[in-house]
Amino acid sequence: LLDLIASNFALHVTDDMREGFAAQGLDLVQAVTLASIVEREAIQDDEQALIASVFLNRLKVGMTLGSDPTVQYALGYDESAQTWWTNPLSLDDLKFDSPYNTYIHAGLPPAPISNPSLGALQAVAFPETSPYYYFQATCDGSGYHTFAITFEEHLSNSCP
Fold it and tell me: Which pTM does this prediction carry?
């Protein structure tokens, strides 16, 4: 089964994608790790490349990724809510000390947090070019995000 999974992965991760990862300064493991975060953040597939650009912009300037799904992964299974993906996260959750917590540790976590789709892998290989460093879910429940360049702009995008 593992050989089948590895063969399927190799069929879908093309040389062009590997070159795209390298152009972003990522090796294959780093690219898959970032794609796993993009996978969990992007509810709408058409935002994956823009969300990837935000994380790549943050990595380039040494910011933390500040990704909720990395904290959710670090926390593990929430018995009371019966989910692996605790939502919403508390302020105490965001302080949970784990190498997967990208609020307190800069750079990528040590390994993927989920199984990324081919779309998320392509988004990391070929991200949109954007000036954005922040994003958050829109207030309408659509699964889309608002994007911001500055932290002040990000705060002004908060839901009432």
Answer: 0.94
